[in-house]
Design goal:
InterPro entries: Lipoprotein_repeat, UCP029720. Pfam families: Lipoprotein_15. By secondary structure, this protein is of the alpha+beta class. The chain has two helices and seven strands. The strands form three sheets. It has a three-stranded antiparallel beta sheet with strand order 4-5-6, with no helix packed on it. A two-stranded antiparallel sheet has the order 1-2. The chain has a two-stranded antiparallel sheet with strand order 3-7. It is globular, with a radius of gyration of 16 Å.
C-alpha cells in the first residue's frame, strides 16, 4: 500500500508541475526572447496592475484575456498565481499578471506591445 501511495503522490506532484510548464513557453520574435502561452500567443503585462493583483476586468479582460491558471497550479521560479476578484486564477511573471491580446491573430504577433503606452511584451531573461 505504501508503494501505491508513494507512486500516486509522485504522479500528482508531476502533474501539478506540468500545469505550470504547459501554461507558457519561451519563443523568439524579431530576435527577442519572449514568453508566450501554450499556443504561442504573446504574453503582455499591464502597467496599471499591481504586483500580485490584476486591475484588468470586464472590457479590459475581453480585449486582454488573462492567462488562466488551473486549479492547483503552483508558483514556479519567477511565475506565480494571482487570485482574481471574479474567483478565477491567473499567471503572473515576476509578480505582474500576464495576458494575451485579442488582436494578435497568430503565434508571433506582437500587436499589443505599447498599446496605450501601458501594455508590454513579457521578455524572457
Amino acid at each position: 500500500m505504501k508503494i501505491i501511495t508513494a507512486g500516486l503522490t509522485a504522479l500528482l506532484l508531476s502533474t501539478a508541475a506540468s500545469f505550470a510548464a504547459d501554461a507558457w513557453k519561451e519563443a523568439e520574435v524579431n530576435g527577442t526572447k519572449i514568453y508566450t502561452d501554450a499556443n504561442g500567443m504573446t504574453l503582455y503585462t499591464y502597467d496599471k496592475d499591481e504586483k500580485g493583483k490584476s486591475n484588468c476586468y470586464d472590457k479590459c479582460a475581453t480585449n486582454w484575456p488573462p492567462l488562466k491558471a488551473e486549479a492547483g497550479a503552483k508558483a514556479d521560479d519567477e511565475w506565480s498565481v494571482v487570485d482574481r476578484t471574479d474567483g478565477t486564477k491567473m499567471w503572473a511573471y515576476d509578480g505582474k499578471p500576464v495576458y494575451t491580446f485579442i488582436k494578435d491573430k497568430k503565434a508571433g504577433d506582437v500587436t499589443g506591445d505599447g498599446v496605450g503606452e501601458v501594455w508590454h511584451i513579457v521578455k524572457a531573461d
